[in-house]
Amino acid sequence: MKTSKTVRCMSFLFMFILLFLTTGCADNYIVLDPKGPIGEQQKDLVILSTLLTLIVIVPVLILTFVIVWRYRDREGRKAKYTPNWEHSTKLEIIWWGIPIIIITLIGIVTVQYTYSLEPSKPLESEKKPITIQVTNLDWKWLFQYPEQGIATVNYVQFPEDTPVRFEVTSDAPMNSFWIPQLGGQIYAMSGMSMTLYLQADEQGEYMGSGANFTGKEFARMFFTANATSQEDFDQWVNQVKNTSPGLTLDGYKELTKQGTSDVRYFSAFPEGLYEMTVTKYAASHNHGLSTRVQPPARVKE
Amino acid sequence: MWESVKEFASEFFVTGDPLIYGADVSIVLSIIAIVSVLTYFKKWGWLWREWLTTVDHKKIGIMYILASVLMLFRGGVDALLMRAQLAMPDMQFLSGDHYNQIFTTHGVIMILFMAMPLMFGLFNVIVPLQLGARDVAFPFLNALSFWLFFSGAMLFNLSFVIGGSPDAGWLAYPPYSELAFNPGPGQDFYIWGIQISGIGSLMTGINFIVTILKVRAPGMTLMKMPMFSWSVLSSCIAIVFAFPILTVTLALLFIDRYLGGHFFTLDGGGNPMMYINLIWMWGHPEVYIIVLPAFGIFSEIVATFSRKKLFGYKSMVFAMIIISVLSFLVWAHHFFTMGSGADVNAFFAVTTMLIAIPTGVKVFNWLFTMFRGKITFETPMLWTVGIIPNFVIGGMTGVLLSVAPADFQYHNSYFLVAHFHQVIIAGVVFGFFAGLYYWWPKIFGFKLNERIGRWAFWLWNIGFYLCFMPQYALGLMGMTRRLYSYGWDKGWFEMNLVSTIGAVIMGVAFLVQIWDIAHSLKNMKRDTTGDPWNARTLEWSIPSPAPFYNFAVMPQVTSQDDWHERKLRIEQGLEKPAKVELEPIHMPKNSGIPIVMSMFWFFVGFGLIFDWLWMAVPGFIGVLACMVVHSFNYDTDYYVTVEEIKRTEAEAGRVIT
Asked: InterPro entries of this UniProt entry (chain B) (predicted)?
């Protein structure tokens, strides 16, 4: 019995190692392969907190194995047996102490990073940030470029090495805007404009997704985030301006209807559309989107 | 006429899916089978007298356990359907709508209608026996709790074939769960199923707090109480503070949906974020509510099978109370990404991490209970030992998730899914399994087969690791939860396939357990000792299964692990089995009111779901009538005669002179 259990135990462990060796294609782990400063710091934090917790976890796992093995009941055992030993202040201080120390360490690191990685905090850069306004719709993402005057659906392009100021809202159930290789996500909520600074240090196409469930075709809300050179970006903007149709208010209403969408480009969008979306339900009864175009309201950050 | 009937039926019943037609047929067939078996063997009277109207905590516990196993089956089938859909990219097995309903019902059923009743079942059967009590403090209330849970669960499950299932996730975040996005009856089934059973849970919480504080055997001070009872106390304290929040939150959501309120709507000044805060103020304590009793179970089992006193009793108690208090201070870690700002996130990150400290201490105390013990590996101990590494890894990923700025990368990904399944399956469910194997002989009077039990253990564990370790990886690959489909381009295929294989193995493991029960029933060897594990606490001092009055004579408790100490004294000849004076025992009478009242609650819920006031109003009147009838019923108790006690004890093989 004993040996067969050990054999099973070992084969089980072996299977695992094998599993991770064969299927763990390293470049699939996009969270651990960041391409921007925010994602980079978050990765560092993931690794640092993992290492700190492992300081406790690994000895505990070893201890478990050793204790279970050594004190199992069998003939001719040499290990001690003390049926009434139930208290030791020294030992208990040790294992209240160790977790307290580790948790204090992780806590300090966490609090520091919580402030430094606050998503609405601008990134330090010589370049002026580019603003992109993101609206979560059922079931597509609308991106508006207030500075460039263009809009896109399910595709977002921006220059590399330039901070991107994403302003995120929703005209549908709550979603979460996430580009894993650039950094963490932020909720997209109606009546709110959330700010998230991200930056790509390398050119490339990154996967973007909605991370919070919004209904039937939620699984079709992937988009591509494309970081290019400044020239390519400018060229692309011009191209969209010259070749694509403009987005009208009616066109926007069409977009808000439930359904999936391919990538789309618009050379223009109604002025103040994003602000109207944010203030759609505001207490001032600004029914901008439901009645007529009104002057854009100020968006609170 | 016929046309309108047809139209009604096509809206009322869920149609158009072979899976559901299959379920319809099997439901009708099993009802016919049950009714005809009961009628053929003339068992209706027996069923009514012995089970449906019982106030005996042991029978109520057994009914809880039965119901939870049924729900485990339902929730497990949901899980397998989901894993089948995700096994390959672009799978066409389930549509988006259907998948969304299935993950919603899977979550609700597993937490509220599987884990909770399984836990309540163990509370019911074991706590009064451990305390040396004749029943819980309020036996009638206890029966009512069970039947409210049962009618809530049935109401929720009905949505599968009538009206349509909810599809907004297990916590039904607005605005998606509001009328504007979710007009069907599914979401109302969710509200009423949980509301009705939630009242039952709250009453169970109150009942067990009072039981533990007021009806312990003479001499059993709180600090001599078995650790499982301590864990129940800490869990029930959390229940009493958390469940009212759930009830209020769902009531507000119902007002929004039914009366056109604006608590959580987008327009009219509603605020969905308020719901998210409120539901997690219940939701987070809820997960500690279910895991604390599991800690208690491990403590009992570790001490018994190491043949050693539990190490650090005071530390253990202290740790559990801290966990139950801290569990109310961490809710916002479920939405670090909602933009509450660095102050809020930092506070909730730190409170969350703090919970790791008492939890870690508990693990150390279990390890040092085994240290210098004589460990044997019967199935309950096997589960407990298997759980330790599992739970330690789950706890570790929990700490990782609590690192707020890093959580922006884990949030709503499969990393999170893997984490909570690891603590809930490997902590809670495996813990309750350990408890079931441990107390099975006490509940039913015979042991489960060890060999088949080992098979089940290994299959569950291997299946578990295969299913959920790849999901951590998927999270780091950027796969978000609740996706019904994904493309080949994402690179998620291999890990998903492995995960599905793991899920299937767990499904097989469940069947092996059912086989274990059937096999052990068939080759039953009665436990005549009442103490088959040579255990330490009072429940093992009486025959298995326990007689309906539990203790023929009230035990006098002098120490922790009183039964173990008493056995030692008898062995050393210091104490002779005492000569006992039997006295008539005061017992509660059965009552049909709990089940009838719960049926009326069912009608209230069903009527409000479909806006049928002709059904809801009489239902509500029925509920009130039951309360009135019970209030004026003074014939609620009786005395068991000394002759009957002697006869019952003799039948259980214990001669009382």
From this structure: Cyt_c_oxase-like_su1_dom, Cyt_c_oxase-like_su1_sf, Cyt_C_Oxase_1
